[in-house]
Amino acid sequence: MAATLMDLRIGKVLKYKNEPYLIVKSQFKRKQAQKPVNKTKLKNLISGAVLEKTFVAGESFEFADVKNEKVQYLYSDAENAFFMNENSFEQFEIDLGTLEGVMPYLLDGTSVDGVFYENNMISISLPPKMTLKVVETTPGVKGDTATGGTKLAKLETGLAVTVPLFINEGDAVRVNTETGEYVDRA
Known about the structure:
five-stranded antiparallel β-sheet; 3 domains; CATH 2.40.50.140; 0% helix; SH3 type barrels
């Protein structure tokens, strides 16, 4: 499917050099007496490599045919993470290097969106926020909240986040999966 420069938007998946690339950044520019351009930052969904590419008006490109399906995280070993399609019960494995920033949010049995390209699972997509339990943190001291202080907390997946002083062990907190920051108490 041929497209125009205006169709290059953040979140779309582009087929570039026969591989799927997620558009992470897109900036359309039109100057007088020059062809319009769209400067993009692309992330390869298979290898994770990031590149910058400027598309010029008239240049041809097409969007990749990717689809999302619900999958459940089962477990991981030293090299791969294993997932199961919730509808067909088919199992898939993905190299841990591909899921580097995602693994700290996954517990056994977590349901997420699997990204499929040409019937192969190439990545997963996390929800914007996830709820995780605090397993280790220092106790808050009464009266120590006047400055809105923070402390470090270790979550059940091993992820360490900075939380407000009133958060205790056993509390469930919501974490932004894009930034890795505390959002609120669940």
